[in-house]
Amino acid sequence: MNDDYNTTATTTTTTTTTTTTSTTTTTTTTTTTTTTISSTTTTTTTTTTTTSTTTTTTTSTKTV
């Protein structure tokens, strides 16, 4: 008798998803320029702020 007909294959897939949201990165760049003309000193400061939000999704899949 052939036992191949009695073989059962079972596949189980487990998916785990981890999501990290609202990770905010703020970068501030400050540039200062000093100019002296005829004993008068002028200082100019420029500040640039950049804000970015990053969403990271990690998916792990395991098939048994």
Describe the structure.
Residues 1-64 are annotated as: Disordered. Residues 7-64 have a biased composition (Low complexity). The protein has 64 residues and is mostly beta strands. Helices cover 0% and strands 77% of the residues. It has strands spanning 13-37, 40-63. A two-stranded antiparallel sheet has the order 1-2. The two termini are 29 Å apart. The relative contact order is 0.41.
State the order of secondary-structure elements, H for helix, E for strand. EE
How would a crystallographer describe the biggest sheet? 2 strands, antiparallel
Overall geometry = rod-shaped
Helix content: under 10%
Output mean pLDDT. Answer: 74
Structural class: mainly beta
Strands side by side in the biggest sheet: 1-2
- Indicate the proportion of strand residues: over 45%
